[in-house]
């Protein structure tokens, strides 16, 4: 989440009067940034992760695992500790940062300063994550632990799922049937966001996840835990009037989505052009890594037939009106908008010649006035469309104290819209007054239960982003196919049961009608490998060679891609498609890495490989199996209080290495506390 301002938030009826003001000044702020930084060159590789936790409070007598609502106290304590930790912090670890998140049971942590492109930094990610986790852990109550679990299984069940208990009847912001007001971070921004989404939309949000149908699941499944006849808020009747669908798990509040935890990575690019290339290169990777990190099969006490959080969050902040959703003709609103403001990206933005216009085949409503303004200022078509597409959204939270800003030194109005477009990738311009460059944030992954796994996926993505730039890889497929992959990625067991659209011919760097390109359409990375190995991961690469005169693309777009299994995407298919892991290995061969370090890197890549070939389970499958084999499970899709308690205990034990889970983790996984000694615990 962005910076939190203290101030007076406007209710929706007031806020909406300032929507154009915020958009106009937001664009002015962006253009100041543009003028100052568009030609900036030579930024080094800096990158960092964000890990989100939920604080679970165990009641061993009642056998209940609940969400602890002590975020405010915990963060105050952590920031006091972090302030005087200085000298105690191990050499290779910067003083961590802890941030608030939407849920009052959540924490987020980031490294105190970003990692560089050095190999020691790459290999410090796991210990950095562990240090942060252990720091949080040490400053919780004895019965509390920070878990990196994507969705809390019993969020919103009848009875007590928070510590302390609050009744959902007091949900004045969300009007939820299931979640109390106190589930939400008390800072004014969050209740306002929640209420303004509901007010703007004209109803509560409504998410329906297909229930996982087991032997004894009643059919049709009409959820007995919904208080169908509650009569406190005007929206209470929505459930029985059709918002809650049979055979589905119904969720009705922002907290169900924004209460999920994820793993995000941000990379600084050498310059604007490379940031655009990296953004595009990672777009098709979003759904692939969502499927591979799938970790959320349980919702509101039921097993679902999906494995991922993505669509839940998309639905949980979907502020589009009926007109915008295409249910009514446009009258009050300007656009029919196909997606929620939390969703997959809609536009490739690189000005690289390999970005064929045909790939941008999604409908793309954009604000034409803003588009024209950007074009007149000198921005190209794609970036102008990108920004003016983000700017079709209204600002949701406006503080009366910060309506008027100095547009040369502030980016708040820009960020107000930018940072409430929660998409699979985020293109981050430099902040106005800082040494930070153009960055790309990768946002699709679910958080993993151990920092070994979180580090493995972080290492995988950073190495892949390097390989994409170093080898000039071409991963483009039509963006509508990326969206189809997003849909498939969330289905139960997607990574082993589904195929995904992926590009076959990924070396288009020398492809040209008159060139002597090989039959695979280009040269493999190995051909052009430098003789001298690099000491660290570079950030700046020579530009892609321009095609020769008379160039045409070799294939029609439809012939450039096909459906592949996860194993094929990761490990290769036939002679032409090498697979992402072999490409990363080829990239590693260009670096000067000590043997011991290489062994560690391989261990991370091996986790990714074994996930993708199915020899290790996704967290979602492991969790589902745990529930299904629990003695208290009645084959009726219900995840009881006791199952949830045992599950979270097991997750904690696995993380600490005191319980083995060899179908989830490599046999030699030793647990998160093994390096306690070396980091001063
Ligand atoms: P947000 O919540 O807006 O996505 P955070 O501040 O929570 O952002 O996390 C940003 C991440 O980017 C952190 O991991 C941080 O270490 C990293 N980071 C900070 N500065 C840079 C930079 N110049 N380039 C790349 N990453 C950076
Ligand atoms: Mg976060
Ligand atoms: Mg963050
Ligand atoms: Mg954040
Ligand atoms: Mg932030
Ligand atoms: Mg982030």
UniProtKB/TrEMBL annotation:
It comes from the Eukaryota. Keywords: ATP-binding, Glutathione biosynthesis, Ligase, Nucleotide-binding. Pathway: Sulfur metabolism; glutathione biosynthesis; glutathione from L-cysteine and L-glutamate: step 1/2. GO terms for biological process: glutathione biosynthetic process. Pfam families: GCS. Its EC number is 6.3.2.2. InterPro entries: GCS (IPR004308), Gln_synth/guanido_kin_cat_dom (IPR014746). Belongs to the glutamate--cysteine ligase type 3 family. This is Glutamate--cysteine ligase. It comes from Psilocybe cubensis (Psychedelic mushroom). The lineage of its organism: Eukaryota, Fungi, Dikarya, Basidiomycota, Agaricomycotina.
């Amino acid at each position: 989440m962005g910076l939190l301002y203290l101030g007076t938030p406007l209710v929706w009826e007031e806020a909406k009067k300032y929507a154009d003001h915020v958009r106009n000044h937001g664009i002015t702020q962006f253009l100041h940034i543009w003028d100052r930084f568009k030609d900036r060159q030579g930024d080094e590789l800096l990158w960092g992760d964000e890990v989100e936790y939920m604080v679970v409070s165990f009641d061993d007598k009642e056998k209940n695992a609940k969400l602890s609502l002590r975020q405010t106290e915990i963060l105050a304590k952590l920031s006091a500790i972090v302030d005087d930790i200085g000298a105690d912090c191990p050499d290779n670890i910067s003083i961590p940062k802890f941030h608030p998140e939407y849920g009052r049971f959540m924490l987020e942590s980031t490294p105190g300063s970003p990692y560089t492109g050095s190999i020691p930094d790459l290999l410090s990610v796991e210990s950095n994550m562990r240090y942060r986790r252990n720091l949080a852990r040490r400053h919780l109550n004895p019965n509390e632990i920070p878990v990196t679990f994507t969705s809390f299984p019993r969020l919103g069940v009848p009875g007590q799922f928070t510590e302390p208990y609050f009744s959902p009847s007091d949900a004045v912001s969300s009007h939820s049937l299931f979640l109390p007001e106190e589930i939400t971070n008390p800072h004014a921004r969050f209740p306002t966001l929640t209420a303004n989404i509901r007010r703007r939309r004209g109803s509560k949000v409504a998410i329906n996840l297909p229930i996982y149908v087991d032997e004894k699941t009643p059919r049709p499944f009409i959820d007995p835990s919904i208080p169908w006849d509650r009569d406190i808020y005007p929206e209470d009747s929505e459930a029985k009037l059709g918002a809650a669908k049979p055979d589905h798990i119904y969720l009705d509040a922002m907290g169900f989505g924004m209460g999920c935890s994820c793993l995000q990575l941000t990379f600084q690019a050498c310059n604007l052009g490379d940031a655009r290339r990296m953004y595009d290169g990672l777009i098709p990777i979003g759904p692939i890594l969502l499927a591979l990190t799938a970790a959320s099969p349980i919702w509101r006490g039921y097993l679902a037939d999906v494995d991922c959080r993505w669509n839940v969050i998309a639905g949980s902040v979907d502020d589009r009106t009926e007109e915008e959703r295409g249910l009514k003709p446009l009258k009050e609103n300007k656009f029919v908008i196909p997606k929620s403001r939390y969703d997959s990206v809609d536009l490739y933005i690189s000005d690289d010649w390999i970005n064929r216009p045909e790939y941008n085949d999604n409908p793309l409503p954009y604000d034409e006035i803003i588009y024209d303004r950007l074009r007149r200022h000198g921005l190209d078509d794609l970036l102008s469309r990108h920004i003016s597409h983000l700017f079709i959204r209204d600002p949701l939270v406006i503080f009366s104290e910060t309506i008027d800003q100095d547009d040369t030194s502030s980016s708040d109005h820009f960020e107000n819209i930018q940072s409430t477009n929660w998409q699979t990738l985020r293109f981050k311009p430099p902040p106005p007054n800082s040494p930070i460059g153009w960055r790309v944030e990768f946002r699709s992954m679910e958080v993993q239960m151990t920092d070994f796994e979180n580090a493995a996926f972080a290492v995988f993505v950073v190495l892949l982003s390097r390989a994409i730039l170093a080898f000039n890889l071409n991963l483009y497929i039509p963006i509508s196919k990326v969206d189809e992959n997003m849909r498939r990625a969330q289905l139960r067991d997607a990574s082993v049961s589904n195929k995904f659209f992926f590009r076959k011919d990924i070396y288009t760097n020398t492809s040209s009608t008159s060139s002597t390109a090989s039959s695979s359409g280009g040269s493999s990375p190995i051909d052009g490998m430098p003789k001298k190995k690099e000491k660290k991961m570079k950030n700046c690469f020579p530009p892609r060679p321009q095609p020769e005169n008379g160039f045409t693309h070799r294939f029609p777009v439809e012939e450039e891609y096909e459906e592949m299994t996860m194993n094929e995407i990761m490990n290769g298919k036939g002679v032409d498609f090498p697979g992402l892991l072999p490409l990363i290995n080829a990239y590693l061969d260009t670096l000067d890495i000590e043997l011991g370090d290489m062994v560690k890197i391989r261990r991370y890549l091996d986790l990714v490989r074994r996930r993708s070939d199915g020899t290790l389970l996704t967290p979602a499958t492991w969790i589902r199996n745990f529930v299904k084999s629990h003695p208290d499970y009645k084959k009726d899709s219900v995840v009881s209080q006791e199952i949830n308690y045992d599950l979270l205990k097991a997750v904690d034990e696995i993380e600490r290495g005191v319980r083995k889970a060899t179908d989830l983790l490599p046999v030699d996984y030793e647990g998160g506390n093994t390096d306690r000694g070396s980091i001063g615990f």
